[in-house]
Design a protein that fits this description.
The structure holds two protein chains of two kinds.
Chain A (H helix, E strand, L loop, with lengths): L6 E5 L1 H15 L6 H16 L9 H22 L5 H20 L6 H14 L1 H4 L3 H20 L9 H9 L14 E2 L2 E2 L1 E12 L6 E12 L3 E5 L2 E9 L1 H6 L1 E12 L4 E11 L2 E8 L4 E8 L5 H4 L10
Parallel strand pairs in A: 1-7
Antiparallel strand pairs in A: 2-3, 4-5, 4-11, 5-8, 6-7, 8-9, 9-10, 10-11
Chain B lengths: L2 E6 L10 H11 L5 E6 L2 H10 L5 H9 L4 H7 L1 H17 L2 H22 L6 E6 L2 H16 L6 E5 L16 H6 L6 H10 L6 E6 L10 E2 L4 E2 L10 H10 L4 E4 L9 H4 L2 H6 L1 H11 L4
Parallel strand pairs in B: 1-2, 1-3, 3-4, 4-5, 5-8
Antiparallel strand pairs in B: 6-7
The chains are: A alpha+beta, B alpha/beta.
Chain lengths: 317, 293
Amino acid sequence: MSGWSGRRTTSLLPVVVLIAVLLPCAATAALPSSAEIRVYLDGVRALAQEIPEPAGDDESIKAYLEGCAQRAASLLRLADAQPPDTLAIRAALRSLKDYRNRQKDSLGPLTDLGRGLLQAENRGHWPPLATYLDGEYLQYLVVKRELLERKYFEEDDPAQANLLEGWINGRFDLFRYDEQGGEWYRHHGVSAWEVTVRTEPVVVFSDTHDAGVLFAGGLLYNFFPAVTQRPDDPYTADAYEGFFSRRVKRVGLRAGAGAVFDGEGPDLVLGLGLQVRAVSLWATYQPEDSDWSLAFGISEWDWLKKLRPFLPYFGGR
Amino acid sequence: MGKLVVAAHGIGNHPPDFATAWEAVLRRNHPQGEFTVVGLWWQDVLEKVAEKYPLVEQQFAAAMAQFGFPELQKILDSAGYAMAREYFMDVLVYIAMGDMTHYIQTEVALRLKQLIAAAGVRPADTILVGHSLGAAALPHVAWEERDHIGYIPYGGMLLLASPLGIVSPLPGVIRDLLGWMAGDTGMSRNEMLAAFAREWEPGTLRFLINTNDIVCADVKLLGTGVAQDPIPLRQGFNQAERTTLAVENPGSVALFSAGFPDPLTLVSNHDVSLYLERPEFRSAFDHLLGVAP
């Protein structure tokens, strides 16, 4: 791991204690004051009033500013309430931000006046409120990096796959990152499902320990730890491991075809496998001999160094 | 300390202190400016992904060779493949694998945040300067931040030889760099450019495009007498896209012609020092430093 990133792993047990400590902290995280919200609201209302009636070509920017003002007024009511509902205030702030983003993306053509008003709202009035979202953004980055690192670069994972595998995992909904995805198998948007498309060395459990290689596809499920931002280092993640995330890490089914080398040249072999971490147990079938066998496979080719005595075709005896 | 200048390199080999060379040019050409230069080095991230996801696994080639088909192994061992890997794998790993694009951008975003925090400046006092693929990663990171905090907080962005204009021939298979920014919003390239340009105050966003640089322009190379575009893709912004940028953020596109449309000068036409020395860059940078209108 580079010096830039970091993680600390601990067992799951302290998580309960940590959550008990952090929840009140989250509830009291910095939020905009009524005065700050009022400044934004007044500023946006003033901008909207600069648009003459009828708005004509400035209709979209007028609607945008009025929409911002409407949501800011709701945010202000929440901030003024006693006692203030901090979770509701934070949700309303996020909602205002999301509204602004959506509307800014669909404003259509703007006049010079419209562009000026947008600039004034976006870079003049909004930034003081946006500072209250900075912490969430940093937390999002730290957690996302940790989970993607865990899924794709964890030590049990082979150091080398191929572009096809990377493309599949980044292309299809079941596997790819989706920040908005709320499916049960996603952790902060990172899917636990992963496809593998790799070549893999195998050793057949037989008297001769025939070695072979399979080109195999697989569907794996990753067990992720609970990941949070470290309280004492906001650029680093804490990973709280459970039994499955620490010991099992990933399981899945494989299917492949390849060849075994029995000393007389390669023979076709087909296989179905069960993978746990980097190890696969294969049921292999050799059509030439109509022979079923069990085989052991390892998806990390570096392990070949340890298996070389059994692998004459890869530099062994 | 004045402004913080964060420099982001592009493809190819760059040492961690690559920004020292950039700073030397900036100090020489902008002696009146008060600024600090730091390098956003991210080559290690690109390499990490490139090593994990090569076009073909070395082991697969080795296995094929064992089967009696050594050709693939020979290709992977060739100098041509090494050169292609050097220049094109960075781009491929950055954009072809969606989750890796997320991973790289997240790492770059975190490094950017750490650099700014370490310098003790506000993002508004930070000028981002990206070259080549770095000039695609920076807009990506800034846009991602906008999605989360509602605006782009940086003081300025100068994009040298940005490949953001490249059009994917198969957008359903590999999104182009601009399409990646639009994500699932359904925005067209023009709409995306308009939205991005509107996020910046006039004079704080500048695309610098050398029309003889094949990374950011459709160069017709003078080879055997007939000018030919050697790359069957559109690399540069088209006229409509440049107009969009110019309308939404006047002055945000600076086209110039430096070097020659010659295959022998392709590398030098893309060199970062060429861009840093240009008067178009100097005026844009001086404006961001506050020493020129």
